[in-house]
């Protein structure tokens, strides 16, 4: 990362990729504040240099939303993930596999916020779209269907005491 900063500049796309990798390493280590600081830097620079709807910017938004989610900062995660989903839908289309990943990420944010009905509704939409786009046997479709089934069962039984 430091070499790329020196050779290419702090705002070069390859440098931003390296910074993103370091942030990902910090995430894996549970170093959330350090990850967040780098992810904010990558997202802001990507937005300025590449545009708000560039695939690299969209990825950086999802990464920052994930860090917020892992910190339990649900409101911030929701705002960022909803914006990322909206931009993905506009840039790539609602049926694009990356848009569907973004949709499922928002589902998990809503679930974490306790918005179970909203999460189930969006998860159903995601599941339907994944079946149409990827097919019933695709691992992402299977995972979504499995999660949907488990959450429905959980909702029917109520919280475990």
UniProtKB/TrEMBL annotation:
Domain of life: Eukaryota
Gene3D superfamilies in alphabetical order: Tetratricopeptide repeat domain
InterPro entries: NLR-like, TPR-like_helical_dom_sf
SUPFAM superfamilies: TPR-like
Pfam family, one: TPR_12
Name of the protein in its database record: Kinesin light chain
Organism: Parathielavia appendiculata
């Amino acid at each position: 990362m430091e070499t790329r900063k020196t050779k290419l500049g702090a705002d070069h796309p390859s440098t931003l990729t390296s910074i993103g990798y370091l942030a990902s390493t910090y995430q894996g280590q549970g170093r959330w504040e350090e990850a967040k600081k780098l992810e904010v830097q990558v997202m802001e620079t990507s937005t300025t240099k590449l545009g708000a709807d560039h695939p690299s910017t969209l990825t950086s938004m999802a990464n920052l939303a994930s860090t917020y989610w892992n910190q339990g900062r649900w409101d911030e995660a929701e705002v960022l993930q909803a914006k990322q989903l909206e931009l993905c839908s506009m840039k790539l289309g609602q049926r694009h596999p990356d848009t569907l990943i973004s949709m499922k990420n928002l589902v998990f944010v809503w679930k974490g916020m306790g918005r179970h009905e909203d999460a189930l509704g969006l998860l159903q939409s995601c599941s339907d779209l994944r079946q149409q786009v990827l097919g019933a046997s695709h691992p992402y479709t299977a995972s979504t269907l499995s999660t949907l089934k488990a959450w429905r069962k959980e909702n029917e039984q109520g919280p475990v005491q």
